[in-house]
Write a structure and sequence with these properties.
Layout lengths: L1 E2 L4 E7 L2 E6 L2 E5 L3 H14 L6 E6 L4 H6 L7 E6 L2 H9 L1 H4 L11 E5 L2 H7 L7 E7 L6 H4 L4 H8 L2 E10 L7 H13 L3 E9 L3 E9 L18 H6 L5
Parallel strand pairs: 5-6, 5-8, 6-7, 8-9
Antiparallel strand pairs: 1-2, 2-3, 3-4, 9-11, 10-11
């Protein structure tokens, strides 16, 4: 158990299943997190013709970064996560850094501990731009998190992307929280973005939702990288079908 200034982190282990809880809410199970992170990361990476620079907002466990680094085109990853204790745990503890394949030690990766919204505001109109962004925040259960799912946030994020930039957003469950899920999709669309909603089944969470968005449209996907455990051509296509 770790109590940081921002949140309560609890790690449990049962046999080969390592689980992380934040403020009592399950964030990942090592048994099936690959399904979530492959679905979150690879659609935006495949929708960009040459993703050299990637911004990851949230995701201090480094698991999304692990998936980003499967793409050989990547030259730089900036991870912006609020809680330094989270990134420290998943960098320093061997059993946790093993989950992210030691991604946070990769020389292409920079870790910045900052509030993502404030960082975007402070750097608005300045600084580097990214080909791809991966937005991996907890569900918008309070004001502090809710501001990360607003028009203003997506507008600020869009100004940090290149002209062909695309991004994905963790968007809660379209099955268990359909109003919240489709509200996120509509908010993205209201910013004039091309949006493709999609979902994946993650046993620890159930049916889970995401959104893929880009200002310049969403081209056909490039081929998947090797070594994935969940996504192939068939399952990638299936992500975008809703009953």
């Amino acid at each position: 158990v770790e109590q940081s200034p921002y949140q309560r982190l609890v790690l449990t282990r049962h046999r080969d299943d390592v689980r992380l809880y934040i403020d009592g809410h399950l964030q990942l199970s090592s048994v099936d997190e690959y399904r979530y992170h492959e679905a979150l990361v690879h659609p935006p990476m495949l929708a960009h013709p040459a993703p050299e620079s990637v911004l990851v907002l949230g995701g201090g466990d480094g698991l999304a970064v692990r998936e980003v680094l499967r793409h050989p085109e990547v030259q730089r990853v900036l991870l912006v996560d609020l809680d330094p204790r989270m990134t420290e745990l998943f960098t320093e503890r061997d059993e946790l850094s093993a989950l992210n394949a030691d991604a946070l030690h990769d020389p292409r990766v920079e870790v910045l501990n900052a509030d993502a919204f404030s960082w975007l505001v402070e750097n608005d109109g300045a600084g580097e731009r990214f080909d791809v962004a991966v937005v991996d925040f907890p569900d918008p259960n309070d004001f502090g998190l809710g501001k990360l799912y607003t028009n203003q946030f997506y507008r600020l994020l869009g100004r940090r992307l290149t002209d062909e930039g695309v991004f994905s957003v963790q968007s809660t469950s379209p099955l268990f929280s359909p109003e919240a899920y489709w509200c996120i999709v509509r908010t993205l669309e209201s910013e004039g973005l091309a949006v493709r909603p999609y979902h994946a089944y993650v046993p620890a969470f159930g049916e889970w939702g995401f959104a893929l968005a880009g200002a310049a449209g969403l081209p056909a996907f490039r081929p998947l990288p090797e070594g994935l455990r969940f996504l192939d051509d068939r399952t990638l296509e299936g992500l975008f079908h809703f009953p």
